[in-house]
Structure formats: structure tokens, C-alpha cells
């Protein structure tokens, strides 16, 4: 199991270095940024849906909450803090402030997740789905009514602080944190809820606690992803956070495999790159998405990768076996 | 005072639309325990079939309504056969994801076929406006209210008094037992879908006529709200769907009249969450303990 | 596992191959970004149709500077991030010489900085927010800004129709609607008129009775609904059913045959401000409306006309610049003077906004009838 973590670290470092060393085409660069943000979203939703076995379809709401919160901090407090920290080199001060704002955005999202999670996580399967969908919509309606963040006009003027290093860093953190949780005793408790909630409760596991915990951590990283997204686009608009966005994130983990971290990243990759490749068929894109959802469920409900993880170890083993044959 | 009464009338006519859609929702859920996300989209498909039947072929309204209902029940049965039936034993999450997929598929296929622009619905029944002491009522509001009550009674009759209704109730209580008793589960479920879809189509045609606007995304919000209405009244309970629809309609209208119309879409979900926490079995439902 | 690994490799490789640029030599490329799918698909499609028709007409006459023009239309689904991707792709991969982009101000505000940074001319057909052209000197627009239309209507209602009280019904989800409502209110109250009720709705709603009942109780002489035709149709119908008989009015969002179909008699005697009138005697308008009907089977709306003009304005600028160098195109476009478009005679001011007059249209006998022209 340790090998998986090592593999991931190496993979991410490679990506990181390759990006730093080269002068990338801005178009590819941007796609990579969105890939990283989508990976964070997918991995964090997978903690809720794939590992804990709860069914949330309101992830876009948490992304919006965190994104808007950290963006508002940057817009209204950024300058002030920068002046206070003027004794530091500007880049360092800026970076430190951004880090703090991102984390605050994530925490805001996590607190919302807590508030939403405690009552709704008592609900089962489809009721929970509708409740999370409802909360996603409520968050969006709230944003539409908040004039401080522009309401329906969108929220422009956010400083551009996100770059690929930040995104890679956070994707790395998200993967490691969630990987560590899953492979701890907490993780086993979480997975037992997925397998059989009643049984795990009778084994003395505080299922509500673990469900809410998973939900809040998922919300935290969704909020971080939102913050990165906001500070990359320099503009937020409620239309980025509709139900459609939640479904896209869901599609990533369904495609990659519910309960697989590498699977989520793989799913995020496909759903970031494929639409770009299919630009010529834009009008068919949503039909392709919906057919993919249906066919995946009918043919391979566990996703392309299932709940396994891709690792160098597995690839080596696979190659060796092939060599022997 | 007149204003408040007028708002309540507005609420009842909106509520009867939710009730109409909720009836089909509650039936399908009662049997399959599946939130059929696509229900709202079948409502939309029904409206479009009605649009073409009334607009292109110039049929009388009643005939157009029947054609829309038949067409939608065929669509409903096809969806059940190919998307839901193979998953009947799969985890609920798979089924739910499939339902979301079907819903998106119907919407986007419709965009591809007819385009995204809204269309005006053929006005087969002219509007008559009645003014009763300053209160305004139209014949269409009365028609929708009457049809939804009529359909509710009819449904209640089918489910409670007929053989197929008995089979439906048996399947909803215990599928395996029903199977052992010689009930053909597949055809009972197919029948439920056909009936539910026909109801949705009736709703679609009436809503098309009432608002005079149809478009491929018209089913999304009403579909979700009808689900809330069904949960509010007690899911699987036919009069409950009706009651839930009216309550939701009136609540929405009163909120947009006296608080703000922008929070209107949030009302349904707030009601949903409150009801799930306080009385998860709904207003008319009996509490059932979960079995292991 | 084996099949899976193969599948993965193949998909990665093929995707990167697909993303590689496909070079077509000898054409001048213009990029366009519109919401062709998603909630604003109607508007995006209208714009794309208008722009495509303009470019086809130019190509039929031999193109510009001796080469044909290729219009690359990208879809953004009304999502800022998709629009950003589309813009990067068009600029970096396809090497377009100019962009015609976005229907809404909010999404244009995402695309505009990208165009400005790459020094590519961006001409928005329909983004009305004043902030858009303030992004930089490469950003232009072909439509009025919010304040002009709102003020035109306020003047018309107060001075010509002599109506002293008005209600406003705004689409809160639309920045366009909010902008028009704000400037209408400012001007109307400054003139001495009184706003007796302010209500709002969300785009895509179908039941407006709650708000209309409240408006009715306030007894206005005029109701201003600066929304889009898809919502305005049902609003007018329901208002008439509830017994509101006063005239309604709006902006160019009303301009569509769909409005007349949905609202029918309910739209009689209403007014809206627009860029042009389809029954105008001007030759450009006549041919535009005729050709559009022939090609797409519907009467064009204001968005189609604006996108058509935007494309023609760009071609005209490229022609006068005598080169596809983006700074020369920019200078030529900025120097546009007295360009005869469908939506009026266009001259750009120093802030790259067009100076053109508005017309007031009355709906009469189921038709749009020209009522007055208002100069800026």
C-alpha cells in the first residue's frame, strides 16, 4: 500500500518538474490547471460518494462557497494585508496571504458542510441526494442575492494568483490527506459505513460522526478547488456552479471508479481533456456525457478502474507477467 | 385582503400543476424506490408530443392530450426496459446515476431535435376570464385543477380497487414475495411506468397550454419540486402527492409575494429538508422502522 | 487490466493528436465564442447564425484582402471557464486575427482580459456592461451600453406617452436586465416620474402571477420589463389575465418573433427600444431580414442583427487595415466612422463604444411598428 503513495508522489513531482522546466503553450497550461482543480474536486467527492458510500450531488455548491469566500477576502482584504506585510518580499507576502485565504475559503466550506451534514446525513441514499442537490441550489440562490459578490452580474476583479504550482501543490495535499484517511482506522470505519451502515453501527462505530467528518473534509477540498478556480479565472459567476457542474464531478468519479483515488484523477483527466478534443462536436457533448453515465452504470458500474489504485508496482507486475508469458 | 386571496388562488393553480406531476412521481417511487429524475423530462416530452399533435396536425385538444399520454408512456416503458430494468438488483446509487443520465439524455436529445428556443403552445382552448368581486380566475386554472383532482381519484381507484393495483401494491411491499405469488413483476413495473409517464404527459400538455411556453429544459425545476411535493405528502401515497403539491404551490407564491421572488426556488428545498428531519414519512405517511 | 492499460494509452495519445492544430493555409481566421448549448442556447445560436451569415456573404464576394475568411465558432455553454478555454484555443492554436465574443457581459469579462493580453481585437456584439470595454484598448462592442436604452425608454414613457407612474419587473438573474432597470429608474425619477412597485423574477420561471398581482395592486400607468422575450411572453399573458391593462415596455431583449407568437394579443400596445426596425426602409436592413429568413426560416432577433454587424465591422476594419496585423486591425476598427450596419450607422467613440441611435417600436396589430428614433 505504501507503494501507491510513493507512486503518486513521484507522478505528481514529475508533472510538477516538467511544468516548471518548460515554457508551456498557454492553452495546454490552462488545461493542466483545470485538470488539477478537477482532480481536487473529484478526489474530495470520492471520499464522500466512493468511500463513505453517501450520495452527494451538491459538490458544486461547496466549490462555490469556498471560491466566493476566498475571492471576497482577496478583493476586500487583500490590499490591506499586503500593506501590513510590506516588510516581507512582495511575492512571499502575496503567497502567504493567498495560502491563508484559500484555507479560510476551504474552512468556510467545511463549516457549511458541517451545518448541512449534521441534519441531512441522517437521511439515506436518494433522500440525501435530493437534499444535497437542494443545498447546492440554495447556495447558488444565496449567491445570486448577495450584492457584495456581484450577484447575477458575476464577481470580477479577483487577483490572478493561481498558477500551476499552486494547483499541483493542493492536488498533492488533497490526495495525500484523503489517502492517509482511507488507510487509517478512521478510513476502515468510513468504508464499513459504505459496506453496511447498520452492521457498522452495531459494531459500535459512530456512523454519524464519520459521515459528517467525511462530508466536511470533502467540502473543505471542494472549497479549496473553488478558491484556486476563482484566482485563476479572475472572475466568478453563478453559472459555473449549477447542478450541471455537480453532475460533471460525479461523472469523473463514476468514470474513474467510485472508491479509487487514482481512478478519480483519471476520470478528472478524461473529463478535462476530452471536451477540448471534442470541441468540434460541442452540440453532442452533453449527449455523450449522459450516454456515458447510463452505459457505465449498465456495463461497468464500478468505473474504468474500479476501486483499485493504479501504481507503478501494479504496472511492473503486469509487465513482468506479460514478459514471462 | 383581495390581494391575499388572489395570491392564494395563484398558489392553488401553481400547486395543481405540481400535484399533477407529483402523482406520477409518487407512484414510480412507491414501487421501485427510485427517484426517477427523468420524470420531469417525460413531462417535457409529453408537452412536445402534444405541441406537434395540436399544432402540426390540428387535432382537437382532447385527442392531442391522449396522443401525448400514449406517446409518453411508450417513452417511459422504453426507458424502464433499457435503463432501469437491468439495474433492478444493483445498488441504489447506480440506479440514481442512471436516472440522472436518462434525464440529461432526454433534455439534450430534445435540444438537438427541436432546438433550445422556447416555442409557443397551440391555443386550442381559448381563455375565459372570470372576475368575482375583484378576484381573477381563468377557465384554464379551473380545468387544470379539475383534471388533477380527477386523475388523483382515478389513480387512487386503480391502485386500491383493481387487480393490477393490488399487484402494484404487492410489488411495492415485497418484490420476491410478489414474484412467488405468481405476479409478473416486469409487467407490473412496466405498467406503473406507463401510467406515471402518461400522467406526466397530461401535466406537460396542460402546462404548455397554461403558460403558453414550452422548451426542452421546462421539466427540470417542476420535476424536482414535484418530488418535494411527493415527499411532503408522504411518498407513495396518492392523496399525499396532491396535498403536497398544493402546499408547495401556495408556499412558493406567498414567499415570492411577501418576501422575495428570488428565494422562491429555495423554498421547495427548505421545505424538503425540514420535512425529512421532522416527519420523514410525510404528512399523510405512517412511520416505518428500517429493517435490517 | 491489460485492455485497460491499452485503452488508456490510446486515448491519451489520440487526445493529444486531436488537440494539435490543424492548419488550413490561405484563409484569414476569425474566432467566435457563444453559448450555443446550455441555458442561453437561444441567444448563442442567434448570434452564431448572424455572424456566420455575414462571413458567408463576404466570402461570396471574394473575401477580404484576396483571401477567404474562416469563422471558427466555439461553444462555451454559458460557463466562464469554458469561454476561457475557447479563447485560449482560438488565440494560441488557431491563431485567429480577431474575436467576436460572448453574449453576456459576465462571460465577456472573462474573455476580454485574455484577448487584451494577447493583443487580439475582441468585438462583443451584445455585452452591455460599461466595464467590458474598460478592460483595454483592444476591446470593442457593437451594442448600446445599459444606460442608453434605459434612459431612452424613460424619456419616451415620460415625455411622449406622458405616463407619470411606472412599475419595474426585473430578471434578477440577468445583468442586462438589472442594468436597464437601474438606468430606467434613475432617469424616470429624475424626470419627475414615480416608481410605484419594483418586483423581480428569475430567468426561466414560468409563473409570474405573484409578482404581477402585487404590481396590479400598486396601479402603475406603465410597466417596464427589461427581460428577454422567452420570459416576457408569459409575463404579458399572465398580466392581461390578471387584468393589468396598461402598456408594458422593454429593451432589445423583446425583439423576437417568438414574443409575438407567445403573447399574441397581450402584447398589443406595448413598446420596446431596439437597434433597428425590421420594417425599416433601409436597404441593409431589408436584405438582411430577407436573407436571414431564407437561410434560417425565422425572422432575425436583435442578437442576430448585432452579431451580423459585428462580423461585418471586423471585416471592414481588416479591409481598411490592409493587413491582418492585430494592432493595425485595432486602429482601423477604432477609426470606424459612419459604418452602415443593420443596427444603425456606427461610429466608435474614444471608449470603443458605438455611437448610434435607438428606435422605439410599438407592437400593433400583431406586428412591430416603427414609432420613433432617438439620437444619442
Which terms summarize this structure?
heterotrimer, A: about 325 residues, mainly alpha, two-stranded antiparallel ribbon, 2 strands, B: about 290 residues, two-stranded antiparallel sheet
Give the structure's gist in a few sentences:
Chain B: Pfam families: BPD_transp_2. The complex is a heterotrimer of chains A (325), B (292) and C (376). Chain B is mainly α and 292 residues long.
Task: Tell me what you see in this structure.
The complex is a heterotrimer of chains A (325), B (292) and C (376). In chain A, 77% of the residues lie in helices and 1% in strands. With 325 residues, chain A is mostly helical. Chain B is mainly alpha-helical. Chain B has one domain (2-219). In chain B, 73% of the residues lie in helices and 3% in strands. Chain B is built from 11 helices and 2 strands; from the N terminus they run H-H-H-H-E-E-H-H-H-H-H-H-H. Chain B is globular, with a radius of gyration of 19 Å. The relative contact order of chain B is 0.20. With 376 residues, chain C is α/β, with parallel strands linked by helices. Chain C has 2 domains: 24-144 and 283-357, Rossmann fold (3-Layer(aba) Sandwich), CATH 3.40.50.2300; 146-274, Response regulator (Rossmann fold), CATH 3.40.50. In chain C, strands 7-6-8-9-10-14-15 form a 7-stranded mixed sheet, with helices on both faces. The relative contact order of chain C is 0.13. Chains A and B meet through helix 5, helix 10 and helix 12 of A and helix 4, helix 9 and helix 11 of B. Chain B: One of its GO terms (biological process) is L-isoleucine import across plasma membrane.
Percentage of residues in strands of chain B: under 5%
Helix-strand pattern of chain C: HEHEHEHEEHEHEHEHEHEHHHEEEEE
Instruction: Summarize the biggest pleated sheet of chain B.
Output: 2 strands, antiparallel
Can you tell me the CATH topology of the largest domain in chain C? Rossmann fold
Q: Can you identify the CATH superfamily of the largest domain in chain C?
A: Response regulator
Principal-axis shape of chain C: globular
Radius of gyration of chain B: 19 Å
- The count of β-strands of chain C is 15
Report the total helices of chain C: 12
